[in-house]
Amino acid sequence: MLTESTLDPANAVYRKVIKAGDHWSHVIKKGQTFRILDLEGNQAADTLFYNAHDPVDRYSASDTIRCQQALYLTSGSKLMSSGGNELLEITADTCGRHDTLGGACSRESNTMRYAIEKENMHACRDSFICGLHDHSDDLGKRDITCNINFFMNVPVTPEGGLTFADGISAPGRYVEMVAKMDVIALISNCPQLNNPCNAYNPTPVEAIIWD
User: Is the dihedral of CA 207, 132, 104, 56 positive or negative?
Assistant: First the structure.
């Protein structure tokens, strides 16, 4: 469901442009509003969330899908944790659909899906590992779970398969959510060049936070 925000980026307490292929992590405090802005359009922002005080309690795709009774996220969707807690709620969305199933690209999946020579290409799983290590020495690859792909279009076929399709986002579209507890947000601004999730041209996104 398309819902515009009334918040003005000029009044934000935090703004950060995340370059194509880069990772970013930040604590979003309970009650703060967090926006991911697709600056140039058709850019997938792979995202994970963790309870800032107990990172074992982290975003759960299966619990979120069950809570929504829907595969895709949009305004009104509640992002649930593995402990059954509400991490964030999407309050504004000008894209209309965000993927919960496609997962994060890795060097291994690039090899399996595309070609052996793609193995050395940078991938979201690498970015997630770097982002977790930057945030805390206690977090690492064991803490990477099924992620949200904001702005990414992954239709489910009638046979139950997944396809990576052209994005439905555009320059200036965004998704905005309110934190229901203190959360760690971790983004891999996807570097994928082998499928159309980034229109074969990864571009920056911006993270914006309001009190």
Answer: negative
**CB count in 10 Å sphere of residue 203:** 16
Q: Are 192 and 96 within 8 A, CB to CB? A: no
Q: Which of 94, 92, 122 is nearest to 109 (CA)?
A: 122
Place of tokens 């918040």: 7
Strand segments, DSSP code E, in the chain are: 14-18, 23-28, 33-38, 45-51, 78-80, 86-93, 148-150, 173-179, 183-189, 205-210
| The overall pTM is greater than 0.70 | yes
Spatial separation of the C-alpha atoms in residues 205 and 22, rounded to whole Å = 10
**pLDDT tens profile 40-91:** 999 999 999 999 999 999 999 999 999 989 999 999 999 999 999 999 999 9
Dihedral (Cα; 79, 144, 26, 36), 10-degree rounding: -50
Residue with tokens 């074969």: 200
- Asked if residue 188 lies in contact with residue 43, where contact means CB atoms within 8 angstroms, the answer is no
| 139-171: pLDDT as tens digits | 988 999 999 999 998 888 888 887 777 778 999
